[in-house]
Amino acid sequence: MGFIRQLDGTYRFQRQRTPVAECDILAAAEDILRLRLERQGAIKTPRDAAEFLRLRIGHLVHEEFHVLWLDTRHRILAVDRLFSGTLDGTAVHPREVVRRALDVNAGAAVLAHNHPSGVCEPSSADLLITEELKNALRLVGVRLLDHLIVGAGATVSLAERGAM
């Protein structure tokens, strides 16, 4: 089920006149942002990544850990959901993150996870896993650019806060 962009900038479903489900609208919004990022060719600012990832995971009622994989020029290679958790946490395994980095031949990465509570302040566990992943990825030549903590209406960049 795809969307068609109208000349006036609006969208409609192909061959469908029935009401549109919220999950379909969110999926379409994610597609629009992904295409916009692909057209840019690269992640230029933390806000570019934050806008995309907020739409992708900000609405979830359980925690998920995602990685935006980039080449050395910060062009998007892949976006992965690597771990899924519960209401207030998810287990992140550095070995699996490094394995995927090698699979996509990444040169850089942006980490992201959501806080279903909407409070985007980083926990001590968030800071610890960021440091562990930064060190693990550095061993295989992958630069960690940022770790974004995403809520329904806000996003916190650890890089912008100087916590990287």
UniProtKB/TrEMBL annotation:
The keyword Zinc applies. It holds the Pfam family RadC. Residues 42-164 form the MPN domain. SUPFAM superfamilies: JAB1/MPN domain. GO terms for biological process: proteolysis. Transmembrane segments: none annotated. PROSITE patterns: MPN, UPF0758. The keyword Metal-binding applies. One of its GO terms (molecular function) is metal ion binding. Keywords: Hydrolase, Metal-binding, Metalloprotease, Protease, Zinc. NCBIfam families: radc. This is DNA repair protein RadC. It comes from Tahibacter aquaticus.
